[in-house]
């Protein structure tokens, strides 16, 4: 890199993790540039439950109040079979949890995080894509593409993103919060292997009069795990784990529409599929099925990066881990690690810490994720485990809103213990 820069960090990706990192850097008086290839924050609920630790960060950033106004709270997890709840977990009893889960759509979360950045005058470059980067011991050179919408196609004209300008920028450090297909991770040559089988979920969000009683209902059965979340405004989300072949069977009719999320097309699912899944797995669900606002099949890969960064470039969030959806771990722990990484980089830039702290960040994050993904430890039944949880003990770790420091407490409350994996 030509010439030594002072105190500038480029954050790639304005998802919740990149936004969290940018807010933390700004609070530490570090110059931040946030680069996002899309032209606005996300538009769907995606990861909709905030863990207590994420909520306390939002309080620190002064954005929790507006979110809390339009949210609902989950105080208990109810583990169910086809006959109803079999084991309840009171989230207020988890060590280190001072509250339950706050249910807020990811779209609202992202919008709430963007506002203070805009107010603080942080450079937020929407429609800018990182195309390449090079690092040396002094810093980084990055090439960006500015995107604009244009018409293309001959027989059928369609709107698509085109590069209208190429730009160059420099930074002391880069945070790669650019999601599952991270360009930053790929540029570093870091492998991102599958660590467990992919799961597919049929997801339905609709209005209902079901009385959730502040519970998230987790239904365990031979067909897979299903989850019922209460949502603000009288809506709910059912997510049913399904086999891919079954998804195909329900998606063959000609009149089905596609919805577009990012670059991906998803089938819109039929009400009849929802009714059949409820009848099969949760006949106790006595709520009405009202207006739909979102229904689709989503695939969740489970991947873990072999390292979380090197030199002056470090990763956080989906760029380095993809977890199962029910415990909402990938986004929540991602926001927390975006914050942590930004603090460490600010400390290094302030001369308060050495660069070895970044290596420590990578090692500790990897250790936490290896545990949560069941690669190093597992949950084992004890004499007091309920039969339902004992039967599906291998699925429990991914269903709980845990981090490494709360895993033991969750296990106690489930009547399980954490043991090293052979
Ligand atoms: C349909 C759907 C349903 C989901 N449901 C759940 C769920 O039920 N539970 C759960 O836990 N999780 C769920 N998730 C996953 C959850 O949304 C992610 O874990 C979360 O968004 C991760 O946040 P992130 O900031 O790490 O990455 P992202 O939110 O993916 O943000 C990354 C950002 O980087 C940008 N970007 C990528 N490449 C570049 C580049 N080269 N230059 C500039 N910008 C770039 C992208 O446009 C994106 O905005 C769901 C996701 C989807 C798509």
From TrEMBL:
- Does the keyword Flavoprotein belong to this entry? yes
Stretches assigned to the FAD-binding domain: 8-367
Q: Which UniProt keywords apply?
A: FAD, Flavoprotein, Monooxygenase, Oxidoreductase
State the InterPro entries in the record.
Answer: FAD-bd, FAD/NAD-bd_sf, RIFMO-like
Cofactor(s) listed: FAD
Q: Which domain of life is it from?
A: Bacteria
GO molecular-function terms, A-Z: FAD binding; oxidoreductase activity, acting on paired donors, with incorporation or reduction of molecular oxygen, NAD(P)H as one donor, and incorporation of one atom of oxygen
What PANTHER family has UniProt attached to this entry? Answer: BINDING MONOOXYGENASE, PUTATIVE (JCVI)-RELATED (PTHR43004:SF19), TRK SYSTEM POTASSIUM UPTAKE PROTEIN (PTHR43004)
Q: Any idea what this protein is called?
A: FAD-dependent monooxygenase
Taxonomic source organism: Oceanipulchritudo coccoides
